Amino acid sequence: MKAVAYRSYGGPEVLEYTDLPEPKVGPDKVLVRVRAAAVNPVDWKVQAGRLDAVMDVQFPVVPGWDVSGTVVRAGADAHEFSEGDEVIGYVRQDWVSNGTFAEYVAAPVRTLAKKPANLSFEQAAGLPLTGLTAYQSLVHALRLGKGETLVVHAAAGGVGSMAVQIARHLGARVIGTASERNHDYLRSLGAEPVTYGEGLADRIRSLAPDGVDAMFDAVGGGVVGETAGVMAADGRTVSIADMGVTELGGRYLFVRPDPADLAALSDLAERGELTVEVAETFPLERAADAQRLSAEGHTRGKIVVTVA
């Protein structure tokens, strides 16, 4: 099969468009014909060796954890899916090796859910990692409730925009931090935008003088500490970008594959309550260019690699 892979740590330059054997399909896996795979910052961070201390790697590595595609074959004990099923997945396995930037991926059933029928394969590929990160942060970690006020830092980003939409679905009020050029976008999602920079805490406090109930940090850089004063006495904080949040009484979250959570996201998308914005698509052989664009950090919406 055609795939993009790397044989040593490095930047986009180590990616090769190459031929690799079709992956074996274990009893609890299905073989997915990949139609699209989203690019996430974690892909190029793993590729650069920045998570080597916590993740086992087996070279050559096919990058990519997000996928949308069609089931080709089910393993002996993979009764959840059948040939022809359209699926999405956050295909993070026990070691880093066989990712989704390929024509085929053998995906454990615990990483998959049905694809929302109303989303294109490109849109659907952008849902799993960012959607699960936001969903698990808000629903499981923060236990966000109706009528509460949530601050989302980096609200216009891939994870942040998912968090805004999920919070609104849960009945929460959302204050979202973003650059001014993204304020109209945040308003369209149902958030009240505030601009980054000096005086951020004062701007949030002016919108929520009694304090906010919860904070979700998707940007890091010390923003939780800078805005800690806007929290209500019993406020809760989760960060996906700053492990130091625990020193401030918050929680650090690293997303997990979860079929029930992924099915809930798929259902929200199918009901029109969750949208995925695709910024740009690249063919598989240009995956390195997709990574370079992702690393610039200025793109709103998902960057997606497509497989013909």
From TrEMBL:
Tell me the protein's name.
Answer: NADP-dependent oxidoreductase
Q: Which residues belong to any copy of the Enoyl reductase (ER) domain?
A: 10-305
Which InterPro entries does the protein's record reference?
Answer: ADH-like_N (IPR013154), Chloroplast_QOR (IPR052733), ER (IPR020843), GroES-like_sf (IPR011032), NAD(P)-bd_dom_sf (IPR036291)
